[in-house]
Amino acid sequence: MKRVGALLLLGAALLLASGGDCEVCSAVREDVNLFLTGSTEDYVGNVARYQSSPVILENAKILKECIDGKMTQDDKQDALSVLDKMYASDLC
Fold this sequence. Notes:
It contains five helices and no strands. It is mostly helical. This is Major allergen I polypeptide chain 1-like.
């Protein structure tokens, strides 16, 4: 898996390990699923629910386009498989 994917998984793992709050897990799950499988517009729209800064929204767009350009569908599926195992954890 490419470095971008590894960083994505590390970030998700840190969020999930930070306290076991199910609300955080569901929010992370939705965000990561959109990030990996959704369109750029859907992902940026989701970010806009929490942040209205044009700089943050532009960075979300750039990051999403980078992921779509760097990760293959297999990479994305592998990342989702690992995350599904984390979501199934007793901590989440």
